[in-house]
Amino acid sequence: MIVLDTHAWVWWVNSPKLLSNPALRAVDSAAKRHELFVSTISAWELAMLVEKGRLELTMDVRDWIARCEALPFLSFVPLSTAITV
Hints:
Helix content is 54%, strand content 13%. It is built from 5 helices and 3 strands, in the order E-H-H-E-H-H-E-H.
């Protein structure tokens, strides 16, 4: 199982070559096993980066996230009270 942080998630979706070869192999392997995750807080962080102009996407951030949510091999981990604390 792999939980991608925000920048690894963005790189893997938009520019996989930015990841090292071992990291890319590990992420791709986890995706094949349906063991690839992103924390929902990363969606918030992504939206904040776009809003502040620190990251530019080729489409609206909501659409970008929705496309990721539609990927059958990527799951979003909801925040629990324990995680937020």
